[in-house]
TrEMBL record, chain A:
It comes from Streptomyces fumanus. GO terms for cellular component: ATP-binding cassette (ABC) transporter complex. Its main location: membrane. InterPro entries: AA_ABC_transptr_permease_3TM, ArtM/GltK/GlnP/TcyL/YhdX-like, Ectoine_EhuC, MetI-like, MetI-like_sf. This is Ectoine/hydroxyectoine ABC transporter permease subunit EhuC. The chain crosses the membrane at residues 12-37, 49-70, 76-97, 156-177, 183-202. It is found in: Cell membrane.
Automatic annotation (TrEMBL), chain B:
It is a multi-pass membrane protein. One of its GO terms (biological process) is amino acid transport. It is found in: Cell membrane. The keyword Protease does not apply. SUPFAM superfamilies: MetI-like (SSF161098). GO terms for molecular function: transmembrane transporter activity. It comes from the Bacteria. Keywords: Amino-acid transport, Cell membrane, Membrane, Transmembrane, Transmembrane helix, Transport. The keyword Phosphoprotein does not apply. This is Ectoine/hydroxyectoine ABC transporter permease subunit EhuD. PANTHER family: L-CYSTINE TRANSPORT SYSTEM PERMEASE PROTEIN TCYL, MEMBRANE COMPONENT OF AMINO ACID ABC TRANSPORTER.
């Protein structure tokens, strides 16, 4: 392989990473909104969030990508840049899977924690933010890590729409060299390395978050002056 | 939004063709992944790192790389090596191989969940190793893992459209062909999108019924 072809592959890898980061951000946002909404007390909120997860989990990611690329533009009269169209389709699809993870982790928090929050007259938003999420989020990390690898694998689908990601650059190199074993092995290896790094990073994040559970939030400097020697005991 | 019902009715014959191919991929791919996954899981229990390391590395690699690129690999590289197979066969092998690396973990968990007393009883009864596996461990392990395997069948259903990329005319392939001939994109894509939702919903209902039956 010549250096020009390697440059093509690296450009493709960069597009894949961009798409991965953007759709992971959208998926996380969708997962938390829908997952928290599924524990809401109003049935209509629960129903809408459930509808979103069922529809997007029910259909295939590739069909969703085709839909965003071909059906949305004529229906609404605007065309998305391929990167954003791919982000939208992948983020919403994998966000629906993530919503189930978020809901599961929230439901798994000991009910006594929720009751304790009510007894201390926390508002529902305070309970979610200060009691439920800090305990639930560390539990979400391992399944999220798996989902992130699935999302990475999903990004290859945009190559079918002609977007120049890693898988697409592999096809270009195959056409250029008329030889496929070598280039596809390299492409698969690059995907594997990215997946490996992601899993490692998520494991580190999990460790860090788990260490924080049950600790008081860091106090702001000079927010409350330390009471000096209560009752003369220091 | 311009929706044309006549385009839908024009598409329906192609849709049924595509549905049949999708279901065929699903059935054959599941069969391959169930068998191959069990083979991987058993190989991982061989007490020799000369077996477990290569199997572990290969399956980890297959699980963490995109099915789409694996399909391209099989589709373009196998002919270079002198192996010729139809696109459908290549796709079925690819999807079956990919999912076998998932079912392998399911089987592993199922085998590990068989209580140690069962192993000890088999030893106490002096059962040969082969009979311990076929008559004691596997019947209990497989029963436990059926629901988890079913979940992978549902995710495999949602990955079948990828075979379109290697020219297999399953549902999405038929839809794309129809769109290219008639310049109607909305109707065929929406029809198959709904079809996927309905299929996976029906599959999850069937799975839940099966799970209840097995629980008794």
């Amino acid at each position: 392989m010549t250096s020009g072809l390697w440059e093509l592959v690296l450009k493709g890898a960069w597009v894949t990473v961009q798409l991965l980061v953007l759709s992971a951000l959208l998926a996380t946002a969708a997962a938390f909104v829908a997952g928290v909404a599924r524990t809401h007390k109003l049935w209509i909120v629960r129903f809408l969030a459930g509808l979103y997860t069922e529809v997007f989990r029910g259909t295939s990611a590739l069909v969703m990508i085709f839909w965003v690329f071909f059906v949305l533009p004529p229906a609404f009269g605007w065309q998305l840049v391929p990167l954003w169209a791919g982000t939208l389709a992948l983020g919403l699809t994998y966000g629906a899977y993530g919503a189930e993870i978020v809901r599961g982790a929230l439901v798994a928090v000991d009910p006594a924690q929720q009751e304790g929050g009510i007894a201390l007259s926390f508002t529902p938003w305070q309970r979610m933010r200060l009691i439920l999420l800090p305990q639930a989020v560390p539990e979400m990390i391992p399944p999220f890590s798996n989902l992130l690898v699935e999302l990475l694998k999903g990004t290859a689908l945009v190559s079918i729409m002609g977007m120049g990601d890693l898988a697409f650059s592999g096809n270009l190199v195959r056409l250029a060299l008329q030889e496929s074993a070598e280039i596809y092995t390299y492409i698969l290896l690059i995907y594997f390395v990215i997946a490996f790094l992601l899993t490692r990073a998520m494991r580190g994040l999990e460790k860090k978050l788990k260490a924080q559970v049950g600790k008081a939030p860091r106090k702001r400097e000079s927010a409350l002056p330390e009471p000096a020697g209560i009752g003369g005991v220091r | 939004m311009n929706w044309d019902w006549s385009a839908v009715s024009d598409f329906m014959p192609h849709f049924w063709d595509g549905l049949l191919v999708t279901l065929r991929i699903l059935v054959l791919g599941s069969a391959i992944s169930f068998v191959l996954g069990l083979v991987w899981a058993l190989l991982m229990r061989v007490p020799s790192r000369w077996v477990t390391w290569p199997v572990g590395i290969v399956t980890e690699f297959v699980r963490n790389t995109p099915l789409l690129v694996q399909l391209f690999f099989l589709f373009y590289v196998l002919p270079e090596w002198g192996v010729t197979a139809s696109a459908l066969t290549t796709g079925v092998i690819g999807i079956g191989l990919h999912y076998s690396t998932y079912t392998m973990q399911v089987y592993r968990a199922g085998i590990e969940a068989v209580p140690a007393g069962q192993w000890e009883a088999a030893t106490a009864l002096n059962l040969p190793l082969r009979r311990t596996w076929t008559a004691v461990i596997l019947p209990q392990a497989v029963r436990r893992v059926v629901p988890a395997l079913g979940n992978y069948v549902i995710s495999m259903l949602k990955d079948t459209p990828m075979l379109m990329a290697i020219t297999v005319l399953e549902m999405l392939g038929e839809a794309r062909l129809f769109s290219q001939e008639t310049f109607r994109f909305t109707e065929p894509l929406t029809v198959i999108g709904v079809a996927f939702i309905v299929l996976s919903y029906l599959a999850s209902l069937a799975l839940r019924a099966l799970e209840r039956r097995l629980a008794h």
